[in-house]
Amino acid sequence: MEWRFVLAVLCLVSAQPAASQHQRTALYPSGFRIKRGTYSLVNPTFQRSMAEVNLLFEVLLAGLQIEGGDERSVLIPDEELASLRSIQRLEVVCEDVLPKRLSEIRRLTAKLARRRAPLSGQDFERTVLTMVYTLQVLASISAAHQKDVWMDALLQLFRAVQKDLA
Fold first, then answer.
1. 0.85 exceeded by the pTM?
2. I need a surface site. Which of 47, 80, 88, 163 has the fewest CB within 10 A?
3. Is the C-alpha dihedral spanning 19, 20, 24, 29 positive or negative?
């Protein structure tokens, strides 16, 4: 429960406007290749207003589960929250944009480590959601070596968020 609170606070902090920057490579290139084919969902982001920041806070506290499979991979235990229309964008971000394989997450952490400019709001949001996914995978792993590798990825993501907030 404590990690949900920490991540929810990070989401609230991400509502602060970030400095505008142009990067040559996207941190989350899959955001530009959404499978759903809807123009409005190209490079989607969930938090567009303070109300949506608060909604993400509620969703995280309710116990958002992000699975790594190809099927419906987002589970929100609270049916009322899950039925909200604006949650569709969060599902798209979690299912289609976030990296799910360890190799993709490590590639992301390497890009984040080299980054000098602050993260954009949507990159911050996606990095925090990737941390949520990584934490959930880490909790389900029993092999010590795999646990160490995923823990390292989680620490790298945390350092990137911490660096961005500093």
1. no
2. 80
3. positive
Query: What ranges do the domains of the chain cover?
Result: 2-165
Confidence of residue 104 (pLDDT cuts 50, 70, 90): very high
Task: Work out the pLDDT band at 88, boundaries 50, 70, 90.
Answer: confident
Q: Position of tokens 């609170």?
A: 5
| DSSP string across 16-41 | SPPPP---SS-S-GGGGS-TT--GGG
pLDDT of residue 8: 55
Q: Which residue has the tokens 């949900």?
A: 4
d(CA 121, CA 51): 15
Task: Note the pLDDT of residue 5.
Answer: 55
As a whole number of angstroms, the distance between CA 104 and CA 41 comes to: 22
Q: How far is C-alpha 93 from the chain's CA centre?
A: 8
Find, among 12, 38, 5, 18, the residue nearest to 122 by Cα. 18
Give every CB contact of residue 135 below 8 A, 6+ residues apart in sequence.
Answer: 3, 154
